[in-house]
Design goal:
InterPro entries: DNA_repair_Rad51/TF_NusA_a-hlx, Helicase_ATP-bd, Helicase_C-like, P-loop_NTPase, SNF2-like_sf, SNF2/RAD54-like_C, SNF2_N. By secondary structure, the chain is an alpha/beta fold. The strands form two sheets. It has a seven-stranded parallel beta sheet, sandwiched between helices. A six-stranded parallel beta sheet has the order 8-13-12-9-11-10, sandwiched between helices. The protein is globular and about 100 Å long.
Length: 696
């Protein structure tokens, strides 16, 4: 079993190394030999090298000092310096090179890596745990087996003497107890199953690529785990500090020491995810504010699986209705825990099964009103920024559940939108003893002081720090001028002081809409490449207009009026569509909880009032498991409110970056951009009225 896993891991390491070496070599071949001067601050003359045929750093880094000395004009010290400078550059390239698997550019080396990884993915974490158990029992039995040798035969026993025979008999008894314990625990069956999984014949290229399309996150997770074990280079997870959210050293060390039993997980946890689960277990009442797409759900499920392994039976997940189905699916597919949905007509029978069988009860915020106060071992609150308003009923209900539950985990990618005070409300549900350290004016002290104060209850990691394999997001602001009919509709809305009509005026005359024309062009371009497109708008009327314009390419529309189950069905139909397809989403509904990673093109019909609303929508496509570059197009009109709105959005995003993300900036008060949506609307309407009046 240990040998089988070692062979499977070795195949991955070898395949990965071939790709990595090729990438490094290609990078070095693109660097001209003249760049060696920069390493030595201009002290080296490289003209002689170039004349001798050494034109790239790759050629010099692959040479020895003895070879370079043979070149006329290069002495021993210079040769040593040249080789040293070239290898310095090579090391820098190695440190900055990461292997990414591009499904659009298949080659033999990439296919070999996918085939090797596929074996580990199919075997899953159970094979890794079985190998560790096999090594552990092997180490445990080595000494008793050696001591038991005299008991293997009569003659050997007689020759050993009385003392060694007695020791051998004790060793045999110990071995019998250990073997019986292992059999009672099911170890032989686990080892046999893991061995069978690891010895499966290699899958074919087509099968492997299809698997990668659907399970890329699991492929990359296996690479990340091998990198953490020191088996691979070129898999940069951003370093320990990034994976641990740059928590204070003493706190991070205590979290690393926290045990995590992941036997109830059916998928491999990446290092930063395991740390997040340990953080929740060590601190008991915390918020994980990881950026969208980093797997907050699987971290929460790992916490529940650990507690279940320790004998706890009942857990509660509270979430918006839009992600109810997703939580049920994720629980059942990523853990051995049963999921029960407390929603709809059958909610009481689901609760009865949960009480009898144990597992995870998934409930909406609204259903907390009727859910009895059953004791639970852990409470998970998804999209926890929904309970930032102390006066709201759902906030009070969640607070009551949190108060009587030992383990509480809040999940949110947007812990603070406009006010630092809202962040204090969330922390107050978790660790109220921290509130004296979080005065209302803490924001004025700057983000460094803010993050230090909330560290015992708050963990955040960003995509760019820990998911280096994700393709780049290409963001394009599609600026254009309103058509004459657009401009007339916009002017009428401004004259009425109707802010919402101003925002959707660019679609008031579909036959002449400049934004709609650009949207058609983008969708046509995506269709030509076979890419799937998600179109977001705040307004249902705009989505209806877009649907009429795009016709049969649209597979469905996700809006706030659509029940949660129907939203997931619309996403499933979009994902299952062969080739190009378009999904329309009202941004408040489609930007929350749904997984849209089948899309590689995102179109925003208009700018939103909160940067987090746009970020959430984009993150539905750009998340762990995405394997294609995501292009985001935001449709904007120069002669409208869009320009001022984009500038204000940029200011709001800067505040969010300073406080919710890690940042070195140290000034600015939250009041600078603390503007309610209503105040923002009034301000923009007034500005536009003045602008149009001045233009005459």
């Amino acid at each position: 079993m240990v040998a089988e896993r070692a062979a499977a891991v070795g195949a991955v390491v070898d395949a990965h190394a071939r790709i990595f070496r090729g990438l490094v070599r290609a990078e070095l071949e693109a660097i001209p030999v003249e760049r060696l001067k920069e390493v030595t601050e201009g002290r080296l003359q490289t003209g002689v090298l170039a004349a001798a045929g050494y034109r790239t750093v790759a050629q010099v880094s692959g040479a020895s000092a003895q070879e370079l000395v043979r070149i006329p004009g290069i002495g021993g010290p210079t040769a040593q310096q040249l080789v040293g400078a070239a290898r310095q550059i090579a090391e820098a390239v190695e440190q900055s090179t990461a292997v990414r698997i591009d499904p659009a550019q298949p080659d033999a080396d990439t296919t070999g890596l996918l085939v090797a990884l596929h074996r580990l993915v199919l075997a899953g974490p159970a094979a890794r745990r079985a190998a560790a158990e096999a090594e552990e029992i092997d180490a445990l039995l080595t000494e008793p087996l050696a001591a038991a040798r005299p008991a293997r035969g009569v003659l050997r026993g007689l020759l050993a003497g009385a003392e060694r025979r007695e020791l051998a008999q004790r060793a045999v008894e110990l071995l019998e107890r250990q073997v019986a314990a292992a059999e009672a625990d099911g170890l032989p069956l686990r080892l046999a199953q893991a061995g069978a999984d690891l010895l499966r014949p290699d899958a074919g290229e087509v099968e492997v690529r299809v698997e990668f399309e659907h399970r890329s996150a699991e492929f990359y997770a296996e690479l990340a785990l091998l990198a953490e074990d020191g088996r691979l280079t070129g898999v940069d997870g951003g370093g320990r500090g990034a994976a641990e959210g740059h928590l204070p050293d003493a706190l991070a060390e205590s979290v690393r020491a926290e045990p995590l039993d992941d036997r109830g997980c059916t998928v491999s946890l990446r290092g930063y995810q395991a740390f997040g689960a340990r953080f929740a277990l060590a601190r008991k009442r915390v918020m994980i504010g990881d950026e969208m797409g980093l797997g907050k759900t699987v971290q929460a499920l790992a916490v529940l699986a650990h507690l279940a392994a320790a004998g706890r039976r009942h857990f509660l997940v509270v979430c918006p209705a839009s992600v109810l189905v997703n939580w049920q699916r994720e629980t059942e597919s990523r853990t051995t825990l049963a999921a029960h949905r407390y929603h709809g007509a059958a909610k009481e029978s689901a609760r009865a099964r949960w009480l009898a069988e144990g597992g995870v009860l998934v409930a909406t915020y609204e259903s907390l009103r009727t859910l009895p106060e059953d004791p639970v071992a852990a409470l998970v609150v998804d999209e926890a920024h929904f309970v930032k308003n102390p006066a709201a009923l759902r906030t009070r209900l969640v607070g009551e559940w949190a108060e009587r539950t030992e383990y509480v985990l809040f999940l949110t990618g947007t812990p603070m939108e406009n006010r630092v005070e809202e962040f204090r409300t969330l922390i107050g549900h978790l660790q109220p003893d921290l509130l004296p350290e979080l005065p209302a004016g803490l924001g004025v002290a700057g983000p460094v002081a803010f993050r230090k104060a909330v560290a015992p209850a708050y963990l955040r990691r960003n995509q760019q720090d820990v998911l280096t394999e994700l393709p780049d997001v290409v963001r394009v602001d599609e600026w254009g001028e309103l058509s004459e009919p657009d401009r007339a509709a916009y002017a009428a809305a401004v004259a009425e002081g109707n802010f919402m009509a101003m925002r959707r005026a660019a679609y008031a005359e579909p036959a002449h809409s400049a934004k709609l024309r650009r949207l058609r062009e983008l969708v046509a371009e995506a269709a030509g490449s076979g890419h799937k497109v998600v179109v977001f708008s705040y307004f249902r009327e705009v989505l209806a207009t877009v649907r009429d314009a795009l016709g049969e390419a649209v597979t469905g529309t996700v809006s706030g009026a659509l029940p949660a189950e129907a939203r997931q069905e619309a996403v499933d139909a979009f994902t299952a569509a062969d080739g190009h397809a378009v999904l329309l989403c009202q941004i408040q509904a489609g930007g929350l909880g749904l997984n849209l990673q089948a899309a590689s093109v995102v179109v925003l019909c208009e700018p939103q009032l909160k940067p987090t609303l746009e970020d959430q929508a984009v993150a539905r496509a750009q998340r762990m498991g995405q394997i294609r570059r995501v292009r985001v197009h935001r449709l904007l009109a120069t002669d409208s409110l869009d320009r001022g709105l984009v500038e204000m959005l940029r200011g709001k995003a800067e505040l969010f970056d300073r406080y919710a993300r890690r940042s070195d900036l140290a000034e600015s008060a939250p009041e600078a951009v603390d503007i309610s949506d209503r105040a923002l609307a009034v301000r923009i309407v007034e500005d536009e009225q003045l602008r149009l009046a001045a233009r005459g």
